[in-house]
Design a protein that fits this description.
By secondary structure, this protein is an alpha/beta fold. It has one domain (about 15-315): Aldolase class I (TIM Barrel). About 35% of the residues lie in helices and about 20% in strands. The chain has helices at about 55-60, 90-100, 135-150, 165-175, 195-200, 220-230, 245-255, 265-280, 285-295, 305-315; strands spanning about 25-30, 35-40, 45-50, 65-75, 105-110, 125, 130, 155, 180-185, 235-240, 260-265, 300-305. An eight-stranded parallel barrel has the order 1-4-5-8-9-10-11-12, surrounded by seven helices. Strand 6 and strand 7 (about 130) form a beta hairpin. The protein starts with about 20 loop residues before the first strand and ends with a helix. The structure holds ligand PBG.
Amino acid sequence: MRRLRKENLRELVQESKINLKDLITPVFVDERIESKVEIPSMPGYFRFPLSKVADEIGRAMELGLKAFILFGLPSKKDEIGSSAFEKDGVIQKSVKSIKKEYPDAVVITDVCLCEYTSHGHCGVVKDGKILNDETLPIIARVAVSHAEAGADIVAPSGMMDGMISAIRGALDSEGFEDTAIMSYSAKYASNFYGPFRDAAESGYSFGDRRSYQMDFHNRREAIREVELDIKEGADIVMVKPALAYLDVIRDVKERFYVPIAAYNVSGEYSMVKAVEKMGWMDGKALAYEILTSIKRAGTDLIITYHSYEIAKLISNV
Ligand code: PBG
């Protein structure tokens, strides 16, 4: 077995490799700031003002990154998250400014209400309950507004039942048949999202997300979620988080023939940064190994906050 492990031969036989073209970089755009702000629980990661977002995309594209998923921090929130579907909302403006400067960039938008609602939940709330069907027309409207602004792919992350068919129907009837849907299909109610809620100010004011996101004790249920989303019209399905969910990625890979994305989430990033800061492990090498493992499990695309470092590592800059 050792013959092919020689330094000059090993690359030739590597089975799974990270390709920069498969990485999707999250971008936080904050309507209320004038210059970039570092996210305290995500060292080395920033929120950008609207005026700088296109420049940031340009910087990332120079490193070889091509695809981006946008998250917005609006200046106002309300009960139903109406600033999520405004024509001149933070995401709609960001998409336009990016597409104007970099028409080749792949622009994906996170479609959810939690950053825009006063209570921080991903749906409409009544008597302490997160309502499913009442939420669908609102997220469909958000998706259409993103498509109108020029998004290539919309990515609903709210885990409402029927969200994909509601969005596909709305996009098609508004003339956006070409806008693709990447569904956060198997999204678990996870402790690994902690730093993101800090980054996107999307924490909730009561309860938790366990009535809509999946229970992490379950594996087969993910298959049902993915199956439903594909039937409803999802073009790409996602498993989230990634590192503690490699079994789920493998299951989805073996059963379905659509592209799979895995979300290497904020908490996974912050853990690496924390041990790096402590001097306990080599953060870049860890990130590289983690992303390679996610690839090996069977994902096609990886959404990751490590993309800048990996791009530099791979291209030796
Ligand atoms: C919004 C959303 C979340 C993430 C992506 N979209 C947070 C949540 O569901 O609470 C998490 C991403 C990350 O942790 O990196 N629904």
